Amino acid sequence: CRICVAERGAICSNLEVPFPSECLASIALNSLAPDREPRRGGITKELLVTGSVRWTADEARVLRVSVGSFLDHLSLVLETMEAFGPPAEQ
């Protein structure tokens, strides 16, 4: 996880989540992408199928809450993947 200062004083954070396959990364992305940021403005979140997540926020507090919430959801997705195993081939 990296934290940096972006344009106009905004704070950004990057996180790389390694997945064993593109299929599992895609499943995680589809599970996590619907969770939009609840606050209008002040923060953006970009998720990529490569396992990369990037946040940009106006305030450190907002960034901390968003990253913490995302990590909670990611933990649940990973636990679910582990419990049910890889997807069946079709």
Automatic annotation (TrEMBL):
Any GO CC annotation of this UniProt entry: nucleus
Keywords: Cytoplasm, Nucleus, tRNA processing
Keyword Acetylation in record: no
Cellular localization per UniProt: Cytoplasm; Nucleus
Biological processes, Gene Ontology terms: tRNA processing; tRNA threonylcarbamoyladenosine metabolic process
Job of this protein: Component of the EKC/KEOPS complex that is required for the formation of a threonylcarbamoyl group on adenosine at position 37 (t(6)A37) in tRNAs that read codons beginning with adenine. The complex is probably involved in the transfer of the threonylcarbamoyl moiety of threonylcarbamoyl-AMP (TC-AMP) to the N6 group of A37. LAGE3 functions as a dimerization module for the complex.
Subunit structure: Component of the EKC/KEOPS complex composed of at least GON7, TP53RK, TPRKB, OSGEP and LAGE3; the whole complex dimerizes.
Family designation: Belongs to the CTAG/PCC1 family.
Name by which UniProt lists this protein: L antigen family member 3
Organism: Denticeps clupeoides (denticle herring)
